[in-house]
Amino acid sequence: MSDRKPVIISEEQLEEQRQYIQQIRLMPDAPKSYHVVTYGCQMNAHDSEILAGMLRDMGMEEAADRESADFVLFNTCCVRDNAERRALGNVTWLKEVRKKNPRLMIGVCGCMIQQPGMAEKILKQYRFVDLAFGTANLYRLPELMLKALESEHAVVEVEEQNTIAEGLPVQRLRHDAAYITIMYGCDNYCTYCIVPYVRGRERSREMSAIVAEAEALRDSGVKEIMLLGQNVNSYGRGLSEPCSFAELLQMVEKIDGIERIRFMTSHPKDLSDDLIEAMKHSEKICRHLHLPLQSGSDRILSAMNRHYTSETYLELARKLRREMPDLSLTTDIIVGFPGETEEDFQQTLDVVRKVRYDSAFTFIYSKRSGTAAARMEDQVPDEVVHDRFDRLLKEVQKIGREETSRFEGQTLPVLVERVNREDDSLMTGRTSQNTVVHFPGDCSLIGQIVDVRLDSCKGFYYIGTMTGGNHAAG
Ligand code: 5AD
Ligand code: SF4
User: Fold this and answer.
1) Who contacts 286 (Cβ-Cβ below 8 Å, separation ≥6)?
2) Quick check: CB of 267 below 6 Å from ligand 2?
3) Sign of the C-alpha dihedral, residues 90, 95, 98, 100?
4) Which atom of ligand 2 lies nearest, measured to the CA of 306?
5) Could you identify the atom of ligand 2 that is nearest to the CA of residue 294?
6) How far apart are the first and last CA of the chain?
7) Would the CB of 188 count as within 6 Å of ligand 2?
8) Contact 30 CB / ligand 2 (< 6 Å)
9) Is the peptide bond before 265 cis (omega within 30 degrees of 0)?
10) 297, 344 Cβ separation under 8 angstroms
11) Of 117, 229, 442, 460, which sits with the fewest C-beta atoms within 10 Å of its C-beta?
């Protein structure tokens, strides 16, 4: 296990990487285009924006797809087995593309590479991979890229994961909303979860760095920011000037021009009254909370090492709804954790029926080697798990539809994101509750917050009508 203290990457180290970027720019046979393929969570999506930023600075253009790129980089996830299999399948498929384009370089990075034994596996079984590196080496992409360009052999690097690198270039996916990572890693060790092993110890960025990033985003026209961390409620532990997540939110709230603040993910055990108060009195913090339940059985919650019971969770949900009646609540639930009985599963359904989530991500338990749960006996047979999964999905979808429809007829501020993918006379945006709304409009509205009446609920989204112009703030 690595040391607790985070390692801040020094300005000299970052400068060294910038030098490598310049060297690559001057290399005639360096790739001219890139395509980053991202798996997994928002944290990975944001890491991909940083990877793309570095590749852009190396002089590469973004290619529309992986077939037309000179360099394809897979930013992988290993939270569940299927994410990992999909990534490896796609990496292998690319080997065929290289037969047509021998210049093609293939890179694999992210959580999957950070797992013990994976670097060796890549070297042995995936010999066509040119470059592989873990989450801790992200900032060293320029150096590793240069090495790969100069070498006949694969460059594979995995190191300790408790680094914080500030000031890396970013190629943002959206101009109206942006991710800011506020903390890295996780110390919770939920027994099913691989994240603490591949993302390292929990470490927070300095508040001043986060605020400066948010201000710079505001200056570039961003209206909404999403603060990211595996467990944002424990933000600030171990900082030179300790600061709570609620305090951080209040600082970000003060930034003029930032009109919406979202965050992800909250652990129920650490959700403080201060946070509820900060949300309740805020003009900018969105009325949406993602609060992973995982299971409604106290026995399973304890085996998962979650540090709450179904009753304390329900009490928290009740308090949140009481304080913010317009709040939308979403969750993550795992079925088929080792030892889960039908009775345990019924308790999960019971909590689902009581909380009435606006939507829920449901997962089949995936055994991750190295975690405590992987060593537990009593793994639940596949057919039992699938049956429970289907029943749970039906229930969360039924409730989700009913809850989503509660906004019908209301006029709510909507941040316009993009032109509708199927009908270009419609625009697509989201309410503060994160509900998707499509409404007639034109692309000049993108990036603005406008009033939209939610006319008809179509399950999980709305068709609406714009009733009011641009909100200058709020
Ligand atoms: N199997 C299934 N789901 C998992 N998650 C994390 N680890 C596993 C696993 N081994 C789910 C949890 C978490 C979400 C991001 O992924 O529900 O909240
Ligand atoms: Fe995994 Fe639990 Fe940490 Fe979330 S809080 S990343 S589920 S260990």
Assistant:
1) 224, 260, 261, 262, 432, 433, 434
2) yes
3) negative
4) 2
5) 7
6) 45
7) yes
8) no
9) yes
10) yes
11) 117
How many angstroms does the Cα of residue 79 sit away from the middle of ligand 1? 6
Q: Is the CB of 88 under 6 A from ligand 2?
A: no
Token pair 């570095």 is found at 54
Strand partners, 33: 61
Q: Give tens-digit pLDDT for 53-92.
A: 999 999 999 999 999 999 999 999 999 999 999 999 999 9
Residue type at 410 in one-letter notation? Q
Task: Establish whether residue 351 lines the binding site of ligand 2, counting it when its CB lies within 6 angstroms of any ligand atom.
Answer: no
| Cβ atoms within 10 Å of 417's Cβ, excluding its own | 18
**Structure tokens, 293:** 């339940």
Please report where in the chains the tokens 């999905």 appear, as a residue.
Answer: 393
* Distance from C-alpha of 185 to C-alpha of 67, rounded to nearest angstrom: 33
Is residue 28's pLDDT more than 50?
A: yes
pLDDT of residue 102: 86
- Cα of 299 vs centre of ligand 1, distance in Å, is 18
> Two tokens at 74?
């897979």
Output the ligand 1 site: residues, CB below 6 A. Answer: 79-80, 192-193, 292, 294, 332, 334, 363, 365-366, 368
Query: Does the structure show a pLDDT above 70 at 284?
Result: yes
Tens digits of per-residue pLDDT, 332-383?
999 999 999 999 999 999 999 999 999 999 999 999 999 999 999 998 999 9
Ligand 1 pocket test target in 44, 111, 191, 192 with most atoms within 8 Å of CB: 192
Handedness of CA 434, 440, 445, 449 (dihedral sign): negative
Tell me the C-alpha distance between 255 and 232, whole Å.
Answer: 20
User: pTM of the predicted model, to two decimals?
Assistant: 0.94
